[in-house]
Amino acid sequence: MRSAAAAAATGCGIVGAASLLAAAYFARQVVVPKTERKEDLQIRRVFHDDDATLMVELPVSARTTAPGRYSIWFSNGTGHACIGEVVSSDDVAGTVTRLVERVDSGDLRTARAGIWSGYVYPTPEPLGLPYSEVQIPVDNGMAPAWKFTPTQPSGDSSTWAIHIHGLGGSKAGALRGVPVANRLGYTSLVVSLRNDRDSPASSDGRYHLGQTEWHDVEAAVSYAAGQGARRIVLFGWSLGASIALQLAASSEFRDLISRLVLNAPVIDWNSTLVANARSSMLPGWVARLGLQMLESSGTRWITGLDAPLNFPSLDFLARANELSVPLLVIHNEGDRSTPFAISREFVSRRPQLATLLTFPSAEHTQEWNADPEGWDAAVENWLRNAPPSSSVSL
After folding, report:
1. Does residue 61 contact residue 94 with C-beta atoms inside 8 Å?
2. What does each C-alpha distance from 205 to 75, 143, 197, 294 come to in angstroms?
3. Are 236 and 262 in contact (CB under 8 A)?
């Protein structure tokens, strides 16, 4: 009996230790910047068709057969190609052939593997719009940004659009919103955040899920105001949307913010991270234990955070009543990273302010990619017709 009890206790101890290790691993995965991604997409063949148009043959998957425009990064991130429409598929071989719209860098013909991405514009050059590189003063240094001057300035030229990328990404991911802003006559500022590869690191070198990063974007708003901006439209992608909400609720410049365009927004980090864990087959209670580690001062030796995270301050389901700015929420129901149900509930809590727009993509932040023309038209229409925040001085 004693030996059985001892064995049971040992087993419980092992399970408990394993759960703590899993929770610690999960917590660190959330906040530790990722510097490399695996090139897990096989490139079967790159060839020219009878019209000398460049084509790429890929294995069939939900991603590679999705309609719209995407990209492939290859050669350890030094190569980039914009991938267009599906041209043909071979059910027997399990392959799909897509148009290569352009190759921005590298030699796609020699590539054997790559990374499928929604980053259609790796740099501003493919947009064909005039821009300059500027530096935004932030904590610990200067953060680079791209400033786009509208090609056809309108009566709205005192409106600036600030474009904010997602977690673990780069400012190139926010370039997709620039053409719409340009057509509306806005000046665009595409910003970087602390711990981006080209920006100053935070003192702890950790992501804070917008809790501190929003101050970098506030610095960009301050820069825009100093350059004559009287209204600010925030375009936020995923984490960038969470940052936009923080600014609208808490920034000293919030009276300048007239509208928010939120694409696949992270509205409640707690619920979002638990949902991510479950989709990765990690038990919800282990994920919640990991979140408790991120919230605790006593476990900073595990997380590496200078200060614990405050998840209630990052919950805009609970803080929805603090907002007074018209906002457009763009999301797809198949998003497995940021649950669509949270966006729907958020919009239902502020029906006078918030509009929900859905697209058929099944990938996170790839609503634009699934239908670039439709996304542009819908966002442009909303920005032309949605009244600016009543707090903005005219």
Report:
1. no
2. 27, 15, 11, 15
3. yes
Whole-angstrom distance, CA of residue 203 vs CA of residue 61? 41
**Cross-strand partners of 142:** 137
Output the CA–CA distances (angstroms, integers) from residue 241 to 202, 247, 296, 302, in the order listed.
20, 10, 25, 28
| Sequence-separated (6 or more) residues with CB below 8 Å from residue 217 | 162, 164, 191, 193, 234, 243, 244, 247
8 Å CB contact between 258 and 325: yes
Residues 57-104 pLDDT 10s: 999 999 999 999 999 999 999 999 999 999 999 999 999 999 999 999
pLDDT tens string 324-383? 999 999 999 989 889 999 999 999 999 999 999 998 877 899 999 999 999 999 999 999
Answer whether 0.90 is exceeded by the pTM.
yes
Residue from 389, 30, 7, 17 nearest 209 by CA: 30
With 0-12 CB in 10 A as exposed, 13-18 as middle and 19+ as buried, what is 372? Answer: middle
Residue entry with tokens 């927004």: 265
State the Cα–Cα distance between residues 201 and 378, nearest whole angstrom: 36
CA distance 154 to 126: 24
What residues does 328 pair with on adjacent strands? 261, 355
